[in-house]
Amino acid sequence: MPRLELAPEVGDDFARILDHLAQYQVENPESRIREIIEAINVLGHSPMIGRPAKNDKRELVIGRRSHGYVASYRYVVEIDTVFLLAVRSQREAGYAEAVPEKNKP
Asked: pTM for this structure?
């Protein structure tokens, strides 16, 4: 079973997510964080589940829409370790669909 290591910046990512949830008074922010953590824990069993990304990284898509996040990680087979590099909202990470100009109010 692969080991899971978190980059120090991941703590800042979770703090930023919590601040955002508090700012917009999202109901039950603890549940939202728990969902993210549970999804990340899947990497301990299935490290190749995320989609390939640049520079030998992978991305785990978690949830969708306002509940959508992306966890960036690298799996190093030789040492059987998943390095979690960042957690971002999908919108922050640039994955939200842009509204075409003609559809904007």
From this structure: 0.83
Domains and CATH numbers, the chain: 3-92 (3.30.2310.20)
**Distance of alpha carbon 55 from alpha carbon 23, whole angstroms:** 34
Tell me the Cα Rg of the chain: 15
How far is residue 38's CA from residue 24's CA, in Å, rounded to a whole number?
Answer: 23
The pLDDT tens digits for 16-69 are: 999 989 998 988 889 999 999 999 999 999 999 999 999 999 999 998 876 799
Q: Rounded to whole angstroms, how far apart are CA atoms 16 and 101?
A: 30
**Structure-block tokens of residue 85:** 């590099």
Q: Give dist(CA 39, CA 100) in Å, integer.
A: 32
DSSP assignment string, 31-86: HHHHHHHHHHHGGGT-TT-SEE-STT-EEEEES-GGG-EEEEEEEEGGGTEEEEEE
The residue length of the chain stands at 105
